[in-house]
Amino acid sequence: MLSGKTVLIGITGAIAAYKICELIRLFKKNNANVRVVTTPNALNFVTKTTLEALSQNQIYIDQFNIDEYKPEHIALTDEADIFIIAPITANTISKITLGISDNLLTSTYCAFKKPVIIAPCMNTNMWENPAIIENLEILKKRNIKIIEPETGFLACGTEGKGRLANINVIFETAKNILLPKQILKGKKIVITAGGTKENIDAVRYIGNYSSGKMGIALADNAYKLGADVTLISTVDVKKQYKTINVQTAQEMYEAVKHEFNNAHSLIMAAAVSDYRVKNISEHKIKKDGNPLTIELIENPDILKEISKNKKDNQIVIGFCAESQNLIENAKNKIKNKGCDYICANDISKKDIGFSSDYNELYIIDKELNISKIEKTDKQNAALKILEEIYGLCK
Ligand SMILES: Cc1cc2nc3c(=O)[nH]c(=O)nc-3n(C[C@H](O)[C@H](O)[C@H](O)COP(=O)(O)O)c2cc1C
C-alpha cells in the first residue's frame, strides 16, 4: 500500500517510546521504507538494535557523524515523504516550537518542509502546563498535525490525559496524508500504452519507439486514485489492476471497444501505427537480390472512432507526439479527432517523451484552453494530468 513512500520516524525520550516498535512494523508491513531518527535520550527507553532490526535501516542519532558529503538532517529531509515524531516529549515540543536545533532530531525537524505529525505523551501535569499548551497552539497554526494523547492510566501511576495515542490512529493519520485521495473511485478508466507492432512476416514487424511508460504511469496513478483501471498495453506488465496485452492496432481497437462500452473514460496514451501490412507473409521473407515492396493499408483510427461513438457522459483523452508546431498540431488534432482532451508532448526534445522517464506536456481541451505540465518524471506527470483533467486539483 505504501510502497515507494519513505516514512521518517522521530523518537524522543518518553516512556511510550517502546510502542513505536509496533508503528515501525506496521509501516514495514505496508511496504514503506522506514528511517528512524532518535534523540540521545530516547535510547534510554528503546534500544538501537531493536529499531535497526525492525526498520531494516541504520538508526540516526548523532548529527556530527556526517555520512559522505551530506549532513544527515539534510539527507533525511530529502528522502522522507513525512516526518512522524512519536512519542514527542514536552522538552522536544518546546524546542521545535522555538526552532532550537541542538540534536539530529530537532535539526531534521527544522529543515523539514513536508508534512509533520507529532504524537505527544507525558504526565497529565506536564500536558496541562501553559507553556506546552501554548507551544502546541503555535505548532497547530504552523500546520503540524497533532495527535493528542489519550486519557487513561499512565506509566507514572496516575490517571489522566497524557497516554500516547493508539498506534493504529497514528498509522492511519499518516496513511491518509501519504496516499492520494480516492478521487476516481467508482470510475472505470481504460488506458492504452505502448507502441503497436504490425507484422510483416513470421519474424518481423513495423513498430515505433514508444516505451509505454507514460500510459503505464497513468494507469498506476488512476489506480492509486481509486479508479477501476483496465490497461490495454503492448508492453506485457503484471499489475494489481486489469491488464490486457495486445500487439497490433486492430487488436487494440477490439479491446478498447469492448472495455470502453461500460467505462467512464478512455485515455489513449499508446502510439498506434497508422498503417499495417496488407499481406502478412506466413513465413520469413527471404532476400532475393531485388528491392522488397511492402504494401501498407490504413489502420482504424481508434481515437477518432471511439470519440465519434461515445456516449455524452463518457470522456475521451488523446495523446499526440509532435516534433514541430506542437500546439498548433495538437489543436488541429483535437478538432479532427473529436476527443475531449489532447495531451501534447514535444518529441524533438531528447530529455523528455518517448523512452525517457520524464515528460513535459500541454493539455488542451475542446475549447482550446491550454494548461502546461512542467517537466517532471512520468509518474508525477501522470498524477498531474489526472488531477487536471478530472478537474480535481482546483
Ligand atoms: C522514566 C522516565 C519517563 C519519562 N517519560 C516522559 C514522557 O512520557 N513524556 C515526556 O515529555 N517526558 C518524559 N520524561 C522526561 C524526558 O525524558 C526528559 O524531558 C528528556 O530531557 C527528554 O529529552 P528529549 O526530548 O531530547 O528526548 C521521562 C523521563 C524519565 C526518566
Tags for this model:
394 residues; Rossmann fold; binds flavin mononucleotide; eight-stranded mixed beta sheet; 2 domains; alpha/beta
- CATH superfamily of the largest domain, called what? CoaB-like
Estimated structural class: alpha/beta
State the CATH class of the largest domain: Alpha Beta
- Characterize the biggest β-sheet: 8 strands, mixed
Number of domains: 2
Number of helices: 13
Spatial order of strands in the largest sheet:
13-12-9-14-17-18-19-20
Helical residues, percent: 25-40%
Approximate strand percentage: 15-25%
CATH topology of the largest domain: Rossmann fold
Radius of gyration: 27 Å
* Spatial separation of the terminal alpha carbons: 26 Å
* Anisotropy-based shape: elongated
Uncertain residue segments: none
Residue-averaged pLDDT: 93
Q: What is the second-level CATH architecture of the largest domain? A: 3-Layer(aba) Sandwich
| Total E-strand runs | 20
The hetero molecules present are:
flavin mononucleotide
List the helices and strands and how they pair.
Blueprint: E1 6-11, H1 20-29, E2 33-38, H2 48-55, E3 59-60, H3 72-79, E4 82-88, H4 90-98, H5 104-111, E5 116-120, H6 124-127, H7 130-141, E6 145-146, E7 150-153, E8 159-163, H8 167-178, E9 188-193, E10 198-199, E11 205-206, H9 213-224, E12 228-233, E13 242-245, H10 249-260, E14 265-268, E15 275-277, E16 296-298, H11 302-309, E17 315-322, H12 326-337, E18 341-346, E19 358-365, E20 370-377, H13 378-389
Parallel strand pairs: 1-2, 1-4, 2-3, 4-5, 5-6, 9-12, 9-14, 12-13, 14-17, 17-18
Antiparallel strand pairs: 7-8, 10-11, 15-16, 18-19, 19-20
The structure holds flavin mononucleotide (FMN).
